[in-house]
Amino acid sequence: MRINSYIAECGICSRRKADKLIDEKRVTINGVLCEKGRIVEKGDIVCVDGTPIVYEKKNVYIALNKPVGIECTTNTKVEGNIIDFVNYPIRIFPIGRLDKDSEGLILLTNDGDISNKILKARNYNEKEYIVTVNKEISLGFLTGMSEGVNILGVKTRPCSVYPINDKTFGIILTQGLNRQIRRMCEAFGYKVIKLKRIRIMNIRLDNLKTGHWRKVTKKEMIELRNLLV
Fold this sequence. Notes:
It contains seven helices and 15 strands.
């Protein structure tokens, strides 16, 4: 593991700040000042300001209310990437995606096992959205959406759709096709103005403000793991 990642994974600071510590000659490996990019091997003793630091991985689970304009990518060279936006001190990654022009709930973690399980089951687990379109919705539109729509060469799975007001509705999907809701609406001549994800399985957005994140609770994680069995 690179030294800046090692320091970040120990929870000392971000990788960027770890590089600054190295530039300031505050980091040693086995008693020797180290340089950027140095690889930490098993058994190495890493010290910051003379104090040894030990890497013990702790799983992190975050629920973020993603704003419009943030990209769900781990590529920090992309402007507006989700990693820099959250700025968590250790390496995390998003579970799945939420389009740049959509907002709402997305989960981030450093636990590859839970991420793989969620992604593997993504076409069976519920995700709920609130959608605003450009004109008044009709009963025929809601019924058609719920019965399945032909997009991308397939018919979407039947889903639950409910009205909220003249131009806004809720929809619960068990699929994750590319820009699915937008394409479904377009098939009926509607354009999505606002799309917000409010739930992934048992994890809810609730009153979390846009741009803010919180730790997923232990209770939520127990429920989530049970749902994934």
